What we know:
- By secondary structure, the chain is an alpha/beta fold.
- The chain folds into two domains: 18-211, 3-Layer(aba) Sandwich (Rossmann fold), CATH 3.40.50.300; 224-324, Helicase, Ruva Protein, domain 3 (Orthogonal Bundle), CATH 1.10.8.80.
- The chain has 14 helices and eleven strands.
- Strands 2-5-8-1-9 form a five-stranded parallel beta sheet. Strands 3-4 form a two-stranded antiparallel ribbon. The chain has a two-stranded antiparallel ribbon with strand order 6-7.
- Helix 3 packs across helix 11 (262-278).
- The protein is globular, with a radius of gyration of 21 Å.
- The model has no long low-confidence stretch (mean pLDDT 86).
Amino acid sequence: MFDIKELNERIQNESAFVDLLMMEVSKVIVGQKYMVERLLIGLLTNGHVLLEGVPGLAKTLSIKTMASAIDAKFSRIQFTPDLLPADLTGTMIYNQKKEEFTVRKGPIFANLVLADEINRAPAKVQSALLEAMQEKQITIGDNTYKLDEPFLVLATQNPIEQEGTYPLPEAQVDRFMLKLKIGYPTREEEKSILKQNVAKTFPKCNVVLNPNEILNAREVVKDVYMDEKIEQYILDIVFATRYPQDFSLAKLTELIGFGASPRGSINLAMASKAYAFIKRRGYVIPEDVRAVCLDVMRHRIGLTYEAEAENITSEDIINEILNSVEVP
């Protein structure tokens, strides 16, 4: 017999590090709890994260702080129009002394990779990164190298300037588990940020975890219990993006170009489990699904010209679906 009480206690013990990690990161990062929580969901589910927000919202700092708190290798790649795939993955270099080619590994060989302004680089560089994300390996010359675990790509894109950028095609955006929209801090938070940055010393965060503990936590997240009713609920949400008329949402038919792929269902289930784990619960409730739904789904729905003409966003469509689909 499946014992939910025992599982709940186990998850509570195993997830004790979450509060510690959040506390440590919040020493450096003021506010942005939503972003830090979602980065942790990415780490716990082996999923990549795409961050969208105006410059100066501590996107880079959050990722760097998270890497130092879990003692992980961090590398940052600034994407520019003249970047080549080899600048990312590495290349073969001729060694004159030894008279042979040796491998110089690129910055992608790290645990947390920040791809800054991913939409500034041309398609061939983006696809080199996406191959690494999907296959978790890199081929240089004749040899294939496995990437270290945990391996997580956090890509940022600036929503304001679209001149001289190469927007990610829908099929590539789908590779990201979560797409986060980062907003401005509140007035109180900004006051703390101001004080922190003009003080003599800037706070540092200590190591509270190691990468192996993250890998162990991933296994525990898989054990979080998900009832069949919750699975049905996730499928209803995803299917409502494909066949809205079956869910009394015929008005959305004109607005949705294409719905979420099966990757959407998988990622919604995994993110819900990770969210329950972060909330130190051994089972998934409908609120967990709703909490992560926007982040998992906002980049998986294609809008028609009608939707764009009426200024309807994918978030509006998801909210409409969440309000209509029956909650178990």
